[in-house]
Amino acid sequence: MEIDRLYRAATPFRRGGLFGLVHVGADAAPIPAPPEAAPAWDKAAERLRGRFGALRLVTPLAADLAQGADAAQQTATTRLRRAGAAQGLDYVIVYRVTAEKTGAASLFGGERFVARAEAAILDVRTGAVLGAVATDPGEPAASESTARAAAMAALTETLDGLGRRLDADAMRAAAPPM
């Protein structure tokens, strides 16, 4: 019944809505974004603006301030939705980046790292996930920061494709029946 209610309540994607951007940890709780995220999102913001509207940062502090008295009883999704609603957002792009060593250092080189990034677009009003994307670990990099930066760049490109798909879906839904 709950799933049926979500389908009935779901509103179609609206192009150009207000989007929040929040970095989360493994438990989906907001955490500060890694330093390499800012340059990737700055580049992506211009490219995605027509599709995703304004991108506003949802910081861990903003998420904490938006919580009500029952914060301990809330799921991670509810916390993110409340934070988005408190900022007047339509959608929240929730993303995380994980990095790991690919092996021990050798005589011929230092440690190598790979990173993976993933994101989901959450409808603030309904809690529906409109789409999700993930990157494959790229080529090993000499530093964790470099691996994270490459994963973030790949993620923003992948999000552009998701945005095109959501746009097409929205146009089909808005088209008059034939």
Task: List strands and helices in order, with pairings.
Layout: H1 2-9, E1 19-23, H2 37-52, E2 55-57, H3 60-65, H4 76-86, E3 91-103, E4 112-123, E5 129-134, H5 144-174
Parallel strand pairs: 1-2, 1-3
Antiparallel strand pairs: 3-4, 4-5
Helix pairs in contact: 2-5
Secondary-structure element sequence?
A: HEHEHHEEEH
Mean pLDDT: 81
Residue runs with pLDDT of under 50 for 5 or more positions: none
Count of DSSP strands: 5
What count of helical segments does DSSP give? 5
Distance between the termini: 32 Å
Shape: globular
Structural class: alpha/beta
Beta-strand share of residues: 15-25%
Overall helicity: 40-55%
Largest sheet: 5 strands, mixed
> What's the quaternary structure here?
single chain
* C-alpha-based Rg, rounded: 18 Å
Strand order of the largest sheet: 2-1-3-4-5
In short:
With 178 residues, this protein is an alpha/beta fold. It has 5 helices and 5 strands; from the N terminus they run H-E-H-E-H-H-E-E-E-H.
Description:
It contains 5 helices and 5 strands; from the N terminus they run αβαβααβββα. It has helices at residues 2-9, 37-52, 60-65, 76-86, 144-174; strands spanning 19-23, 55-57, 91-103, 112-123, 129-134. 40% of the residues lie in helices and 22% in strands. The chain is globular, with a radius of gyration of 18 Å. It has a 5-stranded mixed sheet with strand order 2-1-3-4-5, with helices on both faces. 32% of the residues are buried. Helix 2 (37-52) packs parallel to helix 5 (144-174). The model has no long low-confidence stretch (mean pLDDT 81). It is of the alpha/beta class and 178 residues long. Strand 3 (91-103) and strand 4 form a beta hairpin.
